[in-house]
Write a structure and sequence with these properties.
Length: 374
């Protein structure tokens, strides 16, 4: 008999700093005014276009975001800098991403009643990695005193769900009994705070999840993973060209195309129907329909995307109780959004209730886990 895989605990680390829309937009608008003044001649000749103001009303209406947490606030609102100030750490210090990963991991381990000795593998899965090697996961493993093995993986918006998929398969294959999956989404250094279209979208966070075989579960708040489903389809509509080849390319390694950029409208149009169909198909495999779900822990990129997806599936908008929203205060946290929602809104479900965790975004990538409360 194959192992029943269980999510037995999650952890959420929230940065202590945050930035409201108003603060962010005041800074952007001052930056735009300065840019326009400094480039008045070129703007007058039509060589470059003046930067229009950003607006808090637009941001909240277009995205649902009111505020975002940030690992390091210093520098972001400085119109002469427009990026965080994060001091480089020496090779013998814990790296920034490992530090926030450990914070979330400790909380998940506590929730699942696990010690380092219980864990066989560590997966760090997120949208950006601070370095190529050694793996952040191996650094986290060392810091927590975990034996076994660890590795990093990148799948942008679906890194968390795809990481959980790998843990699920390892437990099913009996190559590991208990796996720690961590999503240290330190995304602020990749945000172009000078880009009106995207300066408001993201926030930093770290989440962690323990998945284990049923036989070792002691947590009282746990979910059976019924099954997983993954989908990818190549698209350049959400893209970052930052990478190790930049050094050889003889281009600006910090140019706008090396940071997050997207064709937001196209993403919205492409991804919503794909995600809705993905969820419908995943449920159908188990003779379930969207109405059978008690909770939807959806990706948190944009409130209008979530509304549209739930409307397509339910024929009406899901309520906040059915499909909780965290992006109003966390913004888009790359792959961690659905895990934040799960962490904050899962205790009230009762035995037998079904829920779905689903991510969708860059790649394109879509990943889901159908779960049932134990
Ligand atoms: N402040 C004020 N106005 C802004 C603005 C800002 N910061 N950014 C854009 N606008 C304006 C545009 O200039 C445009 O004006 P126009 O109609 O006069 O030309 C108008 O608002 C609409 O711009 P658009 O870029 O088409 O906005 P949108 O309504 O599509 O919303 C997103 C932008 C990003 C919120 C939306 O496309 C979206 O949700 N995309 C999904 C993808 C996503 O969020 N991905 C994240 C990574 S997974």
């Amino acid at each position: 008999m194959t192992q029943q895989v269980v999510i037995s605990g999650t952890g959420l680390w929230t940065p202590k700093h945050s930035i409201t829309n108003e603060e962010l937009i005041d800074s952007y608008n001052d930056y735009a005014d300065k840019f326009n003044t400094e480039n008045a001649d070129k703007i007058a000749t039509g060589e470059i276009v003046a930067k229009p103001h950003s607006s808090a009303e637009f941001v909240e209406k277009a995205s649902g975001i009111k505020s975002r947490y940030i690992y390091e606030k210093e520098g972001v609102l400085d119109i002469n800098r427009m990026r965080p100030v994060i001091a480089e750490r020496s090779d013998d210090q814990l790296s920034n991403q490992a530090e926030i990963a450990v914070e979330a991991a400790r909380k998940a381990m506590k929730a699942a009643n696990k010690t380092a000795d219980d864990i066989d593998a560590v997966i760090v899965s997120c949208a950006y990695l601070q370095r190529s090697y050694p793996a952040i996961a191996i650094e986290v493993q060392s810091e927590l005193g975990i034996k076994g093995f660890g590795f990093d993986m990148l799948v942008a918006c679906s890194a968390a769900t795809f990481g959980m998929h790998r843990a699920y398969e390892m437990i099913k294959a009996e190559t590991a009994k208990t796996v720690l999956v961590i999503n240290p989404e330190l995304v602020s250094p990749q945000i172009n705070y000078t880009d009106r279209d995207s300066h408001f979208i993201f926030g930093d966070v770290a989440t962690a999840i323990i998945l284990e075989a049923e036989e070792t579960v002691t947590s009282h708040n746990a979910y059976n993973v019924v099954s997983t489903k993954a989908f990818t389809q190549f698209s350049s509509n959400i893209r970052s060209n930052h990478g190790y080849l930049n050094r050889a390319n003889d281009t600006d390694p910090y140019g706008a195309d090396k940071l997050f950029h997207q064709e937001g409208r196209k993403v919205f149009k492409d991804v919503c129907p794909l995600a809705a169909e993905h969820i419908r198909e995943h449920l159908a495999k188990h003779d379930l329909t969207p109405k059978d779900l008690t909770r939807w822990w959806l990706h948190q990129a944009n409130i209008n995307m979530n509304t549209l997806i739930s409307k397509r599936l339910l024929g009406r908008e899901a309520t906040l109780e059915e499909a909780p929203i965290v992006l109003d205060r966390y913004a888009n946290t790359a792959s961690a959004g659905s895990v934040i929602a799960f962490n904050l809104y899962n205790e009230d479900l009762v035995k037998g209730d079904y829920g779905i965790l689903c991510s969708f975004g860059a790649g394109y990538s879509i990943g889901s886990l159908l779960v049932q409360k134990r």
